């Protein structure tokens, strides 16, 4: 709570419980399609700066193994506090991480040995502060942070001996850690290894870390597995390595510990720590981080008496603020992309970003940033251009500062194209176009291809206009999936054609626009759904529209058929017209085929607008919001996937959605809040007013934009960024005239 001029008001941080998404899903469709890790949000109760370098999180799982999050709500034992680089919300692996823990009474070094009971009732979990009571250890542990650094406060509730245990988290039995008792510094590093492409290979850089302590120590040593080496100051390579120090404590005593990391060096980690947290004032750092978060969250001001809706919205905002992560030190240094060396250095006030979970986040997270954080968005795009310059290819799914072929599509094109089309500055569009064009037209060498460079199966795609079933799509984590790839490449080609046209590259624009219609080559004329096709032109004849099949990515044909965001009217025509289009779209919801827990469905609910039936969009969106997003640990219907799931919710709750990133248009659903204000970086304000909106009064009767009638069921990005007021008259009448005529529907992007 905070008090201003005698009035008490809640801080925005107070609406956020960072543990949402850390338990198995209990939403309506939980388990309907997903299994195992797909049933978890895979989020973290982390303390962090928005898009900062490190996610400081309590740890209940001690591995960097793929698909294992550092924290699960189901767990009852606390192992410590991790400096995590987990790609939050997904099925990937942590990297370059370290963990520290304070314990009492007896020395227990390995994570599973020192694990101690805790209760969720004793946790306080916000983006700026985490605390937990450890009753067996008689410790209250507190954590707050900055981007690259953190400070811990351990309060001991009894006299005796305490220990601080620190370990790098290498699953490769590699790493190093040492103790400097004179400087009171623990230093170590955890080598980073690639996955997906070059699996297990050294990524060319390490996670360096330093830990500083104030208190005089009474003992120290190293450990490796179950062996303890008292008095030793360093240990390298092996399972379960680390450092411990011991000290005497008195009841009520507070002990402070600071930590920081770098992807370049020990010196970088120390500089990060000294710059961000120069003193030992825990509360000051907490206040700094709280102010950062309040400013960040207040860029979208939601006014409502519905406290639950507000918690869900700002909780989603938190989860949409993890990635991409800052990768450079405070002095601008970072390891070069795809090699690690040489160490690069940015100009002052620039940031290099990494961990672009592109297959997920191009849909909503990056379009959201283009509205609320255009300067940061521009630096993210510049980071992609730098990756191209340093590695030679625009990456497909850049993670671990390396090339991967983790997912499908070529959606860095979408990110760059959407940013350019929406007027985002801060990157060289000509260099970006060169990079995008190379991916779209050039076949990599065999060596480059094996390393994750270039589009998968580009040769088949350009030869046939689709990827035939005979092409097994080698050197990809997701092999086959030919139809999904065809659909996604057609969309990417559309975005690139738009960029080419605006840059005056007319020949490219023409070729790419033609390729943007390649999706038609995999829509079955028999079923109207996407279907596998052979090189001779024949389609599969299987009745598989509602089954999971190898030629579709993580879903069924009925899910992926709608993945034509750039040519909805062309898809409508291919299905036999508006009536059949709407009938198929209706069946996604009436027959329980819609799967919100995975991204290819995310635009589906908004597609009724194209058929002039916006009330159905409202109903579908509201249903998803109410049933697939809950304010509890099991409240997400699937992996949050780097914030995409949460970004979807934010757009849906506000009342519009970017069905086709790479165009300037957002599709209107309906506001769910009486008032929303975007406080834009350009100093302007965009306000959406919907007085009287409720669960019943959910439909739009009319709209006025800056006092003028607004019949369109979509809105332009530039209308938002120019500022103004959009007033919605809401009604409980499902059928009304707003947004129903063909002139009111979204433009045909392919004309």
Distance between the termini: 53 Å
CATH topology of the largest domain: Beta-galactosidase, Chain A, domain 5
**Tally of alpha and pi helices:** 19
Residue runs with pLDDT of under 50 for 5 or more positions: 1-8
CATH class category of the largest domain: Mainly Beta
Number of beta-strand segments:
33
Classification by helices and strands: alpha+beta
Oligomeric state: single chain
Q: Compute the gyration radius: what is it?
A: 26 Å
State the major sheet: 9 strands, antiparallel
Mean pLDDT, nearest integer? 96
Into which percent range does the helicity of residues fall? Answer: 25-40%
Q: What portion of the residues fall into strands of 2 or more residues?
A: 15-25%
- The backbone outline, from C-alpha atoms, is globular
Strand order of the largest sheet: 8-9-10-11-20-15-14-13-18
CATH second-level architecture of the largest domain: Distorted Sandwich
Any idea how many domains? 3
List keywords for this structure.
751 residues, alpha+beta, Beta-galactosidase, Chain A, domain 5, Glycosyl hydrolase family fold, GH92 mannosidase fold, 3 domains, nine-stranded antiparallel β-sheet, seven-stranded antiparallel β-sheet, globular, disordered N terminus
How does this structure look, described?
With 751 residues, the chain is of the alpha+beta class. It folds into three domains: 257 residues, Distorted Sandwich (Beta-galactosidase, Chain A, domain 5), CATH 2.70.98; 104 residues, Up-down Bundle (Glycosyl hydrolase family fold), CATH 1.20.1610; 184 residues, GH92 mannosidase fold, CATH 3.30.2080. 26% of the residues lie in helices and 23% in strands. It contains 19 helices and 33 strands. It has a nine-stranded antiparallel sheet with strand order 8-9-10-11-20-15-14-13-18. A seven-stranded antiparallel sheet has the order 3-5-6-12-19-16-17, with no helix packed on it. Strand 1 and strand 2 form a beta hairpin. Helix 7 crosses helix 8 and helix 12 runs antiparallel to helix 13. The radius of gyration is 26 Å and the shape is globular. The relative contact order is 0.10.
